[in-house]
C-alpha cells in the first residue's frame, strides 16, 4: 500500500520551496576523479592495487587518469561556479597527503588541496572535505589494513595533518564516507578494495573504522575553530521486508544491525547493539573491542551525512538465498556476516543503469526514521543520484530526462520529510562529473556533467542545467 506521503514524495505535482539557507551542492571522490596517480609524491592506495589486478575492474579500467581533475582543477571549479553550486563535497586522497600512511605530510599533495579550497572560496563555493573515501595507503593495508587497530590510530594522525593544513579555510569536515562499503565490500565480499573475503576481518574492520572515526573527530576538534562542523557520512540502508511474516521481520532486523546499527550504535549512542553480537557469535566474540573504545567512538557530531540511492528488500531464507553486494559487483562471498539465512530481492519498479530500483519513498521513510531515532541531530543528504546510459548527440548535447525525474522525485521526498519534521539542512548531488565507478570502471555514468574520457572534455548534461536552477532559486519545479 502506498501512503499519501510516499505518493507525494514520488510524484511532485507543484513547485516546492526549500527552507532559506538550505545548502545545495555536488560531490566527488578523489580516486574517482583526480588521476595523477604517481605524481608529486603520491603512492598507491588499495584502489590503485585493486584496479591494476586483472579481473577486478570491468575492462581493466583504473583511476590512473580518471577525469584528470588534478590537472583540470580550475576548469572544474569554474564549472561549479557556472552551475551556481553553493557547496562542493570532495575527498582528500590519503596517499597524496601522507604516502605511507605515517609521518609528515607531503607539501605538494597538500598544496593541491590548498589551491582547490582557495579557488572554491574565491567563487563563493563552500568547501566540504571528506577525509576518507576508500583510498587507504597500500602500505597500511600491507600492515593489516582496517582490521587492525593501528590503522585507526594512523587515521587520526592523518586527520590532524589535514586539519592543520586546511582548517583555517575549510569549516565543514567529514571523517568517513560509507564505512559499510569499506568494511563489508572490501573485507567481506571482496568486490571493493582491498578485495579480501574474510567475514571476521570485515567485522574487525567495521570496529576499527568506528574507532578511527572517533579518534579523527577528537583530532579535528583539537585543531579546528569552535564554529567548525564535523560529521560522518553513512549509507544508511532502508531495509524493507518482502512479506509481513515474523521471519522476514527478523531478516530486516539482522540486516539493519549489520548495515546501519553497527555504525550508528557506537557513533551516535555509545554502544553496539546486543543483537549484532548474538547474530555474529559463531564468528567472533568481539574481543577486539577494547575498554574505552566506545567512549572514543561516541563523539558529538554537528550533523549526520546520509547517502541514499535505493531501498533494500529482504526475506527469511533456508540458507541458499542470494546475498546482495549492494550493486557494486558479484561475489560468491557474502558481505553480510552472520546473515546466511537472509535473502535479498529486487525491489519493484524502474531501475537505473546500476540495476538499482528508483524509489524516492525509501528516502522519505529513511529521513523520518533518522529524525525519530536521533532527535536534535541535523541531517544532510551527502549523496543521491543515478547512473544512466548517457551519450552526447551529434550536436554535442547530453539529454538525460531520466536523471532529472530521479532527482526531482528524491528532492520532493526530502522536502516532504522536512515538512513532516526531519531537520534536513542540505543536498549534494552525486556526482558532479562522470567518473571511475569502482568495480564498474568507466561503464557507469553518474555525473551531472558528461566527460568524454579520450579528450577529457566536460559537457554539462540537461540535468546539470536543471539542477543549477533549483540550486539558484531553492525551488523544486513540479513535474
Protein architecture, described:
The chain is an alpha/beta fold and 479 residues long. It is built from 16 helices and 15 strands. The strands form 4 sheets. It has an 8-stranded parallel beta barrel with strand order 2-3-4-5-6-8-11-12, surrounded by 5 helices. Strands 7-9-10 form a 3-stranded mixed β-sheet, covered by helices on one side. α10 packs parallel to α11 (246-269). The chain is globular, with a radius of gyration of 21 Å. The model is unreliable at 1-10 (pLDDT under 50). Residues 315-344 are annotated as: Disordered. GO terms for molecular function: beta-glucosidase activity.
Throw out a few tags for this protein:
479 residues, alpha/beta, 8-stranded parallel β-barrel, 3-stranded mixed sheet, 16 helices, disordered N terminus, Glyco_hydro_1, hydrolase
The overall average pLDDT, rounded, is: 96
| Percent range of helical residues | 25-40%
The largest beta-sheet arranges its strands as 2-3-4-5-6-8-11-12
Structural class of the helix and strand makeup?
alpha/beta
Strand content: 5-15%
Helical run tally: 16
Low-confidence stretches: 1-10
**Global outline:** globular
What is the makeup of the main sheet? 8 strands, parallel, barrel
Structural Rg: 21 Å
Catalytic activity: Hydrolysis of terminal, non-reducing beta-D-glucosyl residues with release of beta-D-glucose
Region (Disordered): 315-344
Keywords: Carbohydrate metabolism, Cellulose degradation, Glycosidase, Hydrolase, Polysaccharide degradation
Active site: 383 (nucleophile)
Amino acid at each position: 500500500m502506498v501512503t499519501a506521503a510516499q505518493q507525494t514524495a514520488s510524484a511532485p505535482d507543484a513547485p516546492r520551496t526549500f527552507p532559506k539557507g538550505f545548502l545545495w551542492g555536488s560531490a566527488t571522490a578523489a580516486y574517482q576523479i583526480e588521476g595523477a596517480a604517481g605524481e608529486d609524491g603520491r603512492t598507491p592506495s588499495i584502489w590503485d592495487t585493486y584496479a591494476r589486478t586483472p579481473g577486478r575492474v570491468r575492462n581493466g579500467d583504473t583511476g590512473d587518469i580518471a577525469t584528470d581533475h588534478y590537472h583540470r582543477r580550475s576548469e572544474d571549479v569554474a564549472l561549479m561556479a557556472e552551475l551556481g553550486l553553493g557547496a562542493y563535497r570532495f575527498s582528500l586522497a590519503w596517499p597524496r597527503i601522507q604516502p605511507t600512511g605515517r609521518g609528515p605530510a607531503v607539501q605538494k599533495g597538500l598544496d593541491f588541496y590548498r589551491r582547490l579550497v582557495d579557488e572554491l572560496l574565491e567563487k563563493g563555493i563552500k568547501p566540504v572535505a571528506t577525509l576518507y573515501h576508500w583510498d587507504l595507503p597500500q602500505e597500511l593495508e600491507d600492515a593489516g589494513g582496517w582490521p587492525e587497530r593501528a590503522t585507526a590510530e594512523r587515521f587520526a594522525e592523518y586527520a590532524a595533518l589535514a586539519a592543520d593544513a586546511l582548517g583555517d579555510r575549510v569549516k565543514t569536515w567529514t571523517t568517513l564516507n560509507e564505512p559499510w562499503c569499506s568494511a563489508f565490500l572490501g573485507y567481506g565480499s571482496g568486490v571493493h578494495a582491498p578485495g579480501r573475503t574474510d567475514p571476521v576481518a570485515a567485522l574487525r574492520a567495521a570496529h576499527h573504522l568506528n574507532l578511527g572515526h572517533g579518534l579523527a573527530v577528537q583530532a579535528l576538534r583539537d585543531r579546528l575553530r569552535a564554529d567548525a562542523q564535523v560529521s560522518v557520512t553513512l549509507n544508511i540502508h532502508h531495509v524493507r521486508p518482502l512479506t509481513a511474516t515474523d521471519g522476514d521481520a527478523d531478516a530486516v532486523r539482522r540486516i539493519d544491525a549489520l548495515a546501519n546499527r553497527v555504525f550508528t550504535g557506537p557513533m551516535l549512542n555509545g554502544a553496539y547493539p546486543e543483537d549484532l553480537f548474538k547474530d555474529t557469535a559463531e564468528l567472533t566474540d568481539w574481543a577486539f573491542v577494547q575498554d574505552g573504545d566506545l567512549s572514543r567512538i561516541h563523539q558529538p557530531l554537528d550533523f549526520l551525512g546520509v547517502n541514499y540511492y535505493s531501498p533494500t528488500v529482504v526475506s527469511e531464507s533456508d540458507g541458499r538465498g542470494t546475498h546482495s553486494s549492494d550493486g557494486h559487483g558479484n561475489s560468491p562471498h557474502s558481505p553480510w556476516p552472520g546473515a546466511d539465512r537472509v535473502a535479498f530481492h529486487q525491489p519493484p519498479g524502474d531501475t537505473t543503469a546500476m540495476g538499482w530500483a528508483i524509489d524516492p519513498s525509501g528516502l522519505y521513510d529513511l529521513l523520518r526514521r533518522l529524525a525519530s531515532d536521533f532527535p536534535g541531530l541535523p541531517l544532510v543528504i551527502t549523496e543521491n543520484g543515478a547512473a544512466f546510459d548517457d551519450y552526447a548527440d551529434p550536436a554535442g548535447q547530453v539529454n538525460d530526462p531520466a536523471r532529472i525525474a530521479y532527482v526531482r522525485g528524491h528532492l520532493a521526498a526530502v522536502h516532504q520529510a522536512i515538512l513532516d519534521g526531519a531537520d534536513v539542512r542540505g543536498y549534494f548531488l552525486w556526482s558532479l562529473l562522470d567518473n571511475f565507478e569502482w568495480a564498474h570502471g568507466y561503464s557507469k555514468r553518474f555525473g551531472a556533467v558528461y566527460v568524454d574520457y579520450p579528450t577529457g572534455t566536460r559537457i554539462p548534461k540537461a540535468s546539470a542545467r536543471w539542477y543549477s536552477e533549483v540550486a539558484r532559486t531553492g525551488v523544486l519545479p513540479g513535474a
